[in-house]
């Protein structure tokens, strides 16, 4: 059985490719999923990929990853990054490393976006690199887990 990485996406990421393409790019969520699956294969991971506009569902998937003993979580909590103590608490309650990912550089945006509850409990943060940030997060989790890269 392959080690598993959960990739969890928050609200409005289902609109990638059509929502503010000048800010978020033209890649769709399906493109991001394909990128994650390719990166997962390269590092010997099974990828569990989710997206929801509902905070409680994100919390449930974080808890599920903990119960499953996942190798890690790549989390783009989107707007919930800046508002959700529930997501912070869910991450703090599990023994799974989380890499926080954002398509844009949240530190160069509106002041309210510069606060991240997720960062307080994440192992690392990648922002501003578009969809490639997801692949880098998976590579980072592979490094943390001591996984060899497959060519």
UniProtKB/TrEMBL annotation:
Reported function: Catalyzes a trans-dehydration via an enolate intermediate.
Q: Site (Transition state stabilizer): give the residues.
A: 19
Q: What pathway does the annotation place this protein in?
A: Metabolic intermediate biosynthesis; chorismate biosynthesis; chorismate from D-erythrose 4-phosphate and phosphoenolpyruvate: step 3/7
| Residue positions binding substrate | 76, 82, 89, 103-104, 113
InterPro entries in UniProt: DHquinase_II (IPR001874), DHquinase_II_CS (IPR018509), DHquinase_II_sf (IPR036441)
A GO molecular function held by the record: 3-dehydroquinate dehydratase activity
Gene behind this protein: aroQ
How would you summarize the oligomeric state and partners of this protein? Homododecamer.
Catalyzes what?
Answer: 3-dehydroquinate = 3-dehydroshikimate + H2O
Q: What is the lineage of its organism?
A: Bacteria, Pseudomonadati, Pseudomonadota, Alphaproteobacteria, Hyphomicrobiales
Protein family per UniProt? Belongs to the type-II 3-dehydroquinase family.
Enzyme Commission (EC) number = 4.2.1.10
Q: Which Gene3D superfamilies match?
A: Dehydroquinase, class II
GO BP terms in the entry: amino acid biosynthetic process; aromatic amino acid family biosynthetic process; chorismate biosynthetic process; quinate catabolic process
Active site residues according to the UniProt entry: 24 (proton acceptor), 102 (proton donor)
Name by which UniProt lists this protein: 3-dehydroquinate dehydratase
The protein's UniProt keywords, in alphabetical order, are:
Amino-acid biosynthesis, Aromatic amino acid biosynthesis, Lyase
């Amino acid at each position: 059985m392959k080690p598993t990485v959960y990739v969890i996406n928050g609200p409005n990421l289902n609109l990638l490719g059509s929502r503010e393409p000048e800010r978020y790019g033209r890649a769709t969520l399906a493109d991001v999923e394909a990128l994650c699956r390719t990166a997962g294969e390269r590092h010997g991971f099974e990828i569990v990929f989710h997206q929801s506009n509902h905070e409680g569902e994100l919390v449930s998937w974080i808890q599920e990853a903990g119960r499953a003993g996942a190798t890690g979580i790549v989390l783009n909590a989107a707007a919930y990054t800046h508002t959700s103590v529930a997501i912070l608490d869910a991450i703090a309650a599990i023994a799974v490393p989380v890499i926080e990912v954002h398509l844009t550089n949240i530190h160069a945006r509106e002041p309210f976006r510069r606060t991240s509850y997720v960062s307080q409990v994440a192992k690392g943060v990648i922002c501003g690199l578009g969809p490639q940030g997801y692949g880098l997060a998976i590579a980072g989790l592979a490094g943390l887990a001591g996984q060899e890269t497959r060519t």
